[in-house]
Amino acid sequence: MMHLGTARTAIYCWAVARHFGGEFLLRIEDTDRERSTPEATQVILDAMKWLNLDYDNKEVVYQMNRLPRYKEVVDQLLAKGLAYKCYATKEELDEMREAQKARGEKPRYDGRWRPENCVGKPIPEGVTPVIRFRNPDDGVVTWEDGVYGEITVANSELDDLVIMRGDGIPTYNFAVVVDDWDMQISHVIRGADHINNTPRQINLYNAIGAPLPTFAHLPLIHGEDGQKLSKRNGTVSVLQYNEEGYLPEALFNYLARLGWGHKDDEKFTREQLAEWFELSDCSRSPARFSMKKLDWLNHEYIKGYDDKKLAELVKPRIEKLGGDLSLVKDLPGVMALLKSREPTLQALAKAAMLFCHNNPVDSSSLPAQLKDKEDASFEAMAAFVRKAPSIEWKKESIYGLMKEIMDEQGVKVLHLAIPLRVLVTGAEKTPSIDATLELYGQERVLTRLNEGMEKWAAQRAGN
């Protein structure tokens, strides 16, 4: 799946490409056959589309379509003595590592099938060899990282990595080097967990005669508890945030700000990110993912949305919740009323259900809510029902009628607001009652109130 860390990396790659007027290319590294399923690949493509990460290559590069090219380069390395066949079995390698651990050594391949170490050694029957790269024995690998600055690793710390498995499928470290060469990649931007791969890959670039790209490694994203992200605190598929009602531009903005900044700007456009982005402005410390901050930013975007566009986004969510949109004459108006209160599209849809279904009219809770003012409240409501058919059905007129009745009968606003909420909507809490009644529509409100007042009167008579 494409989780938050992967998405942020893609956003930064996009920003660098757009900043320099270059190309943002998409490559699916699918040589791990167990993890690289068509479904997993589709999640990546869908997430890229949802985040509007517009890549420039017309055809996505799939590594499994490039196997002949990898074999070609491997054969060249074998011919130059820069790679060799290794016949060590899994059991042998496990035994080797256990012995190294017992001696207090760092587990690493010991070069037993390097040509100079196996002169006259018989090739075991029934063992399909892997191809290993012959890493330089001496010297160091140094690169200027776009985020961390200069990094140096001694070659003595690196062993001979496998570059092609026995089934002819290349390993990640080898395939990406060949791909970067062929795709003319200028910048490799990825998580800091790849730093250990970089010196190995640099030696491979040098071995095949490819130019070195600029490397930049991004600190990982931690949860609010300072620990690595988990399913509990953020490492779910990016598309899960779509399901939960986050806007793609809000998540894009939030992830871009998570480990990089431009002055005190919290909210910015994609175009501004492309203009402002510099790798040197990225933090070297892990960023902390905050749902509270994401909710705040998402809410800022929602509040700025056009009401009609917001209604179109929320409509299918309401339908999925079972809401009856035929009851709502002005869904954009509902959005205008609710968007200052709700931080996500899903929360908006749930709040909009107040208008999208008819709760049973139930007056049983009114006596307890109104306490010793039930009689006054009932009379005020009766006056409201008598006069409401003759007013213009706008919130200003509705509140004007309420104010008129309050002044005439000496009651407080709650003596009207509480029964209006309960009898019309079936809910004890709503947005401002005048705006709510306007959006319910005059006919619907009066129908509900007449039914409710009859039940309330019968209830009072029974008591």
From TrEMBL:
Residues 309-452 form the Aminoacyl-tRNA synthetase class I anticodon-binding domain. It comes from the Bacteria. A motif ('KMSKS' region) lies at residues 228-232. The keyword ATP-binding applies. NCBIfam families: gltX_bact. Pfam families: Anticodon_2, tRNA-synt_1c. This is Glutamate--tRNA ligase. The gene is gltX. Keywords: Aminoacyl-tRNA synthetase, ATP-binding, Cytoplasm, Ligase, Nucleotide-binding, Protein biosynthesis. PANTHER family: GLUTAMATE--TRNA LIGASE, GLUTAMATE--TRNA LIGASE, MITOCHONDRIAL-RELATED. Residues 2-296 form the Glutamyl/glutaminyl-tRNA synthetase class Ib catalytic domain. It is an enzyme of class 6 (ligase). Catalyzes the attachment of glutamate to tRNA(Glu) in a two-step reaction: glutamate is first activated by ATP to form Glu-AMP and then transferred to the acceptor end of tRNA(Glu). GO terms for molecular function: ATP binding; glutamate-tRNA ligase activity; tRNA binding; zinc ion binding. ATP binds at K231.
